[in-house]
Amino acid sequence: MVALTIDDYPRPTLEILVSLLAARRLPWTSALNADTVDDGYMYAPWSTGLSWANVAALPSALVEMANHGASHRDITDPAAVDAEITGSLARLRSAPPARVVQGWVPPGSDYPGLALKTPPQARGIADYQSSVAGRSILNDHAWALGQDPRPQDAVGPVITWPRDGHPVPVPGRQWLDFPHGAGLQSGGDPAGGFGGLCVAAAIARGHGAILGLHTAHLVGQGGQDRYDLGQLSGFLDHLTGLRDAGRIAVVRVSDWMSAKVVAR
């Protein structure tokens, strides 16, 4: 059981990634900052979006929206927390066509009492419950992801979670956008990158995995040039092959949260 999350709202998400995922019928969760869709807004040079009309045009059968905070900026004023979290959720839900927005995907930002960027990051339910910002996130959303580290285990730096029908409090993601394409392949083999190892471990354990990606870090798209289009396409083909062979299901995070899988 694999869920794919795409963070932020750079143009490559719409101009490149949407068509790649749609061609393979791969569902995904868009972690969207509500403010970044407004004309002229940016929090980084590569972070510009397009428009609310482009959001409306995303295929609802494959894409779900998740709240990623309003601005993707650090918030130091406690009075601004509500607008950053609850206000963003309200905007995403009300933007036509109205969508069901259930979840929270944490941005790399710090809030009063809740570190989602600066180590030690919020990793578990207790970290969320200990701050006003964290409690607002838990109260306003059906599910929330955490910022867990990548644990070292027998198969490498992978993170998987039991999917036994019970909720997983703030599960962390396995990142795919490592430098030199290491999250997507190793020596040209998509099964050998961190993402492939994570998926293989999830299959072996009867677990689920949540994979995270920033399209801005695709070569030539304004970010940090961490992977290229061939590496990304190869990994998506790998996921598609595993799905078509009946080895995995690829789902949106909301479906992943309530799923039950067993080891094969």
From TrEMBL:
What SUPFAM superfamilies does UniProt report for this protein, alphabetically? Glycoside hydrolase/deacetylase
Pfam families this protein is in? Polysacc_deac_1 (PF01522)
Domain annotation NodB homology: ranges: 1-115
Q: What is this protein called?
A: NodB homology domain-containing protein
Q: Taxonomy-wise, where does this protein's organism fall, top ranks first?
A: Bacteria, Bacillati, Actinomycetota, Actinomycetes, Micrococcales
InterPro entries, sorted:
Glyco_hydro/deAcase_b/a-brl, NODB_dom
Domain of life from the UniProt record = Bacteria
